[in-house]
Amino acid sequence: MKSVKKLIALLLFVVILTTMMSSIALATVGGGAGRPVTGWATANLPRHGRVDVSSGNNLNVRSGPSTNHSVVGSLPKDRDITIIGPAENGFFPVYYNSTTSVGYVSASYILHPSPFDDNRAFMVVVSQGSTLNFRASAPSGTVLANAPNTARVPQFTTTITQSFRNVVYRGVGSGWMHQDHLGTPPAN
Q1: Distance in angstroms (rounded) separating the CA atoms of residues 183 and 52
Q2: Starting from the edge strand earliest in sequence, which strands make up the sheet with 131-135, in order?
Q3: Could you please report the per-residue DSSP string of 74-124?
């Protein structure tokens, strides 16, 4: 009888602990390793974006902020979405299936993911055949990718660190590019 009571007490403890950890995780959405949350005041939420994938493809919606989380849905090209919080680990929490479900999508595939009203985007300006380093941190972080001339890179935050802007590059997420090589893209 004592062992049954101990087992029940242990199970109850695990349930309570799991519930508390889930609540803490939901309350701390935002940031992530190296991901600033500047500009995401609660009063400014939600923000909108548009799915930007190649024609015929869909963007996976995941249960959490990484590709390790299960796919819970998908969104077609050009679908307007509501971004409900800052990026975490390069993924935005969004509504999908109207406003009934919350999932995570890669910030790399959201057009105008900026949390700012002007949704400012830049265009890479380098000589033909050259590329611009897209870095994990400014000014000398690991090079995550090389962006070609005329690539569009929406701002991620308005932060400028040692002449580097915090931007989003497709397929990679948020990172840093030197502002001397970022021009304003032509209007669409």
Answers
A1: 21
A2: 143-148, 131-135, 173-178, 164-169, 152-161, 121-124, 182-183
A3: EEETT-EEEE-S--BTTEEEEEETTTTEEEEEEGGGEES--SSTT--EEEE
pTM for this prediction: 0.45
Strand ordering across the sheet containing 110-111: 71-76, 58-62, 101-106, 91-96, 80-83, 47-51, 110-111
- Contact yes or no for 141/135 (Cβ under 8 A): yes
Average pLDDT for residues 8-29, to the nearest whole number? Answer: 52
Q: Check residue 62 and give its pLDDT.
A: 94
- For the stretch 47-70, what's the b/e string if a residue is b when 16 or more beta carbons lie within 10 angstroms of its beta carbon? bebebbbeeeeebbbbebbeeeee
Question: Rounded to the nearest 5°, which phi and psi values hold at 149?
Answer: -55, 140
